[in-house]
Specification:
This protein has three helices and five strands; from the N terminus they run E-E-E-E-E-H-H-H. By secondary structure, the chain is of the alpha+beta class. The chain has one domain: Aspartate Aminotransferase, domain 1 (Alpha-Beta Complex), CATH 3.90.1150.
């Protein structure tokens, strides 16, 4: 679970509980539950050159999502989601306080698959020497 921000009233913490992370052709997609204690809804954050955010409740529970955004500024949530997703995927953050993260994944040199686009000169972590197969033409 990742702490994102506080509601505008300051009494509710907005969080993201990441359920899945998958590699896509141009980056990664994280899916999880976004909530503040009164509302929970599914969200997908796609991280690549740009960040795209999809709130499932735009179609499933529009009223619940609008009530949530009445309590919490939508732009602040989208910014926090984008930053949290970048941090989960490759360890970089645009925030001044990266210690606000209370969980999630972190990319390290031992996990280059979680650092998409971070190191262009990386070498394979696992190597078996000579190939045990020969390609057929």
């Amino acid at each position: 679970m990742i702490y994102l921000c506080n509601s505008e009233q300051g009494n509710l913490a907005v969080y993201l509980d990441v359920h899945a992370m998958e590699r896509q052709e141009r980056g990664f997609a994280l899916s999880g539950t976004l909530g503040d204690g009164h509302y929970e809804g599914d969200v997908m954050v796609e991280v690549g050159v740009d960040v795209a955010i999809t709130f499932a409740d735009r179609w499933l529970d529009r009223d619940g999502l609008e009530t949530f955004f009445d309590r919490v500024d939508k732009r602040m949530v989208e910014s926090a989601l984008a930053d949290a997703a970048r941090t989960v995927v490759d360890g970089r953050s645009d925030r001044q306080c990266p210690d606000r993260l209370s969980g999630g994944f972190a990319a390290t040199d031992s996990e280059p698959h979680r650092a998409y686009g971070r190191r262009q000169d990386s070498v394979p972590v696992v190597s078996s020497g000579e190939a045990l197969w020969s390609p057929s033409a």
